[in-house]
Amino acid sequence: xxxxxxxxxxxxxxxxxxxxxxxxxxxxxxxxxxxxxxxxxxxxxxxxxxxxxxxxxxxxxxxxxxxxxxxxxxxxxxxxxxxxxxxxxxxxxxxxxxxxxxxxxxxxxxxxxxxxxxxxxxxxxxxxxxxxxxxxxxxxxxxxxxxxxxxxxxxxxxxxxxxxxxxxxxxxxxxxxxxxxxxxxxxxxxxxxxxxxxxxxxxxxxxxxxxxxxxxxxxxxxxxxxxxxxxxxxxxxxxxxxxxxxxxxxxxxxxxxxxxxxxxxxxxxxxxxxxxxxxxxxxxxxxxxxxxxxxxxxxxxxxxxxxxxxxxxxxxxxxxxxxxxxxxxxxxxxxxxxxxxxxxxxxxxxxxxxxxxxxxxxxxxxxxxxxxxxxxxxxxxxxxxxxxxxxxxxx
Length: 395
Prior knowledge:
alpha/beta
């Protein structure tokens, strides 16, 4: 049953790979009817992405979606998708700027005919500016937005996260834009264009990086597992593994010092204040590491809980699946997929008290799996008409 907040919203998703499809996933989880348009036969390259022999990442990003196929490079395919867009509230795309316009599906054309439509556009550099026509991927946005330079060890080249954070940030901001635009549409009946760029999405989470330079000429550098001046907040080595402790606040540090059996350190002028701990960050981390190395993770965990100090193990997938808190909040669910049977994956998020998000349908296993259902339901096309279009390579 669909009781999601967006259950009366229809989305047409034209994007491929990550940014556009992840935005579609977020909206679909919240109840929207997401119709994913894929190239005939080949489909979205995301179907083949992921680590390991079996490509299961598609099962997450394409859940709650219906797949139709359409060749957007031919006039018949463009006309077909335009008819589909007429029945939509939201259009998502993450092609290179100018591509929709080349296909006769640019915002000027669509909004003139469908003024209610919300168009969420995701690209490397945005729809305007001197770089707008350049190709852009998430990693390039992370580099230009400031993320890559500050990630990694200071004596090594810039590193990256193990996930495509630039793409998913852009998708999340795109989703936020759609939700705000839906509110405006409810008041005015008018749609609009949402322009989200990969590099600007990354820039949004760069905290004080720009004003620090503007005011003090300070350029943030790579600092490994710490944030410079924020201490103690690091991963420490126990007898049997690594453990994260975040006691970077005066009162928390005093509690940690007590937990360590050295309460006098809480008032030690080298560590008693935020600024002092920042100045003596390395020696403070060494002090804590020396202590944790004498204990197991369970022992440190018990002490952190007893003294109300934010801390926890560094999880991998097996740890998440075994954790009772993950289980109690249903943070990971099991979905019956068409290709792999029961498959565990992250649940829908955030949680709503009255209009819960959910995973209602598995990812479509076949390109154009819902052609007859969608094109017949919305456009009234017959089986013979669809068969003719398939023969011509339109769908």
